[in-house]
């Protein structure tokens, strides 16, 4: 067994071997010359300097007094829908950003799917970490919605915020429903049903008066807008035979196509027979010049009655509808032989806010079809 300690000092033993003396004077002087690092001070987050914009959060803090020994800071944050400390049994987990050299940090490219984010920070030196600062909660509200698969056309396969055209979806589901409801009989066999089904048959609506049908290949959002400014983006397959995105009233008929009535406003891409990219409302269309982007930014300013469409990459304005919303509206989408996906939880980009302010009070050549 190894000894519990080992003496490496010059030892002195008395002549009678009754005493052992050890000289620690050198070690004592060495210990006295050591410089121990103090525990770093507790940072204070400066709420007035923190900024939430463009789906980015900048947190700024300071440490009372001068402490040159601080090597870095660790920032922790978590998302929540309630302001202040969590009141539930299960607290949301903290996310960690380590090794921050300065006294501020910016979280970029966030999706704001909760109302708030809570932050705290601590200082660290080479030896030890200090106490966390008092938590600070910042509001991170943005427009978040889901797609209403219960009212979507039966040929649209809705999975979360993604939609794909399914030419057989309606017929297959209808056959399954008929097979379940019909009594067992040779005349009602699946094989006979398949033979008797016409390939040109229009799929029937599935048990809901709100489900879009016929050639209205439409799906709506589940959340309505009745005030404020909101922004979302949609990425779509430019090879789709037809695609549209915009706003619609909840009263949009189940046979109504986007842009064909006074209850909807949209940008419409058509690749069937000939290619066209138009702004449509109340069965009127205006052709749009320039290349078709693969990602649209949609901005609604409800009180001002503005619905604007942008190239989501460059923030170039494509078209603006100017109208007067008299009742709530919902984001609306249409696709035929193609696919698209929606991104929510986005704040109105600062670029668009500046463009809107610059254009306020001036007539826009793209604002028509009201």
Between the first and last Cα atoms, what is the distance in angstroms?
92 Å
Order of helices and strands: EEHEEEEEEEEEEHHEEEEEEEEEEEH
Helix content: 10-25%
> Quaternary arrangement of the chains shown?
single chain
Strand order of the largest sheet: 11-12-23-14-19-20-21
User: Which segments are poorly predicted (pLDDT under 50) over 5 or more consecutive residues?
Assistant: 3-8, 184-209, 362-367
Question: How many strands, which pairing sense, and closed or not: the largest β-sheet?
Answer: 7 strands, antiparallel
What value does the average pLDDT take?
A: 84
Rg value: 33 Å
Content of β-strand: 25-35%
Question: What is the overall silhouette?
Answer: elongated
Secondary structure class reads mainly beta
Helix segment count? 4
Please provide a brief summary of the model.
The chain contains four helices and 23 strands. It has 370 residues and is mostly beta strands. It starts with 10 loop residues before the first strand and ends in an 11-residue tail after the last helix.
